Amino acid sequence: MRILFITATRLGDAVLSTGLLSHLLTIWSDAQFTVACGPVAAGLFEHMPRLQHLHIMTKRRYDLHWFDLWKACAGHKWDITVDLRGSAVTFLLRSGKRYIMRGGRRPGLRTEHLAQVLHLSPPPSPVIWTSEADRHYVNTFLPAHTPLIALGPTANWSGKIWPAENYLPLWKALSERYPQARPVVLYGPGPQEQALAQPLLDTLPGVIDAGGKFSLSQTAAILMRCRLYIGNDSGLMHLSAAAGTPTLGLFGPSRVSEYAPSGQHTAWVVADGPEGHAPITGLCVSTVTEAALTMMDSLPL
Q1: Spelled out in words, what is the top-level CATH class assigned to the domain 134-298?
Q2: Are 245 and 229 spatial neighbours (Cβ–Cβ below 8 Å)?
Q3: CA gap 8, 38 in Å, rounded
Q4: Which Pfam families does this entry report, sorted A to Z (predicted)?
Q5: pLDDT per residue over 10-37, tens digit each?
Q6: pLDDT band at 278; cut points 50, 70, 90
Q7: Which architecture characterizes domain 2-117 according to CATH?
Q8: Which ranges of the chain would DSSP assign to H, the alpha helix?
Q9: Using CA of residue 272, residue 276, residue 281, residue 286, what is the dihedral sign?
Q10: How far apart are the C-alpha atoms of 155 and 157, rounded to whole Å?
């Protein structure tokens, strides 16, 4: 049995779609999967069970990346095709069942929209696949028996980024309650991400630099070692929630009603103002601190 799964280009949306993949893996235990996604999200599927092929859709002029996908898939007969991009390509392939997500923005959680494609309720929770090698590797540089608190100061849009200077007073409050804790700063590859994280790396005491050079599965393994993640609405926030790490999302102008972190231990705080227009600078340090301490205090030792 062969299943083609076409998912998002952006990391956060791709993470949210993994719940559907996990459901399909469970229901169709004999199926082999081909996953098509953008380059940023490709690492999510590196250790996915029964992955036969990963097709990375690198954007090309005149939408030729869709032609590339068709060429790669047209020679096969697919038992099931799941297209979360709503593309015309799906109709040009030989497929038994087709599940296609219509485009356009609409109210409600993104996870619920995704679940409707397969007629699932409640939505399946996102998952992350890591390897034993990933987990062993991160254990070589993360201190054992130390409470680790992950911080995610970056995002793909400046309007979603909580000011870097807020993290020092936040950390001072957290470390007063948990003096043995150490901060772990996560960020993606590239100079822009590095620049956004640098103020935290320069000022937080005992900071562990866990960004820039790690694969997505290694980053997930790092998050699995952390007692809490605090960060902007971003792909890293969704990765943290999917990894099972207690996750506190920071929201300003992005819509928490659509992109709240999805997981068993998740919470969020929102800047004052109308949804979709609230400036992230209006999110007070005291509000974030109170929510973070509430989450930490509720966790088992």
Answers
A1: alpha beta
A2: yes
A3: 7
A4: Glyco_transf_9 (PF01075)
A5: 999 999 999 999 999 999 999 999 999 9
A6: very high
A7: 3-Layer(aba) Sandwich (3.40)
A8: 11-27, 64-73, 110-117, 132-139, 167-177, 191-203, 216-224, 235-242, 256-259, 285-298
A9: positive
A10: 5
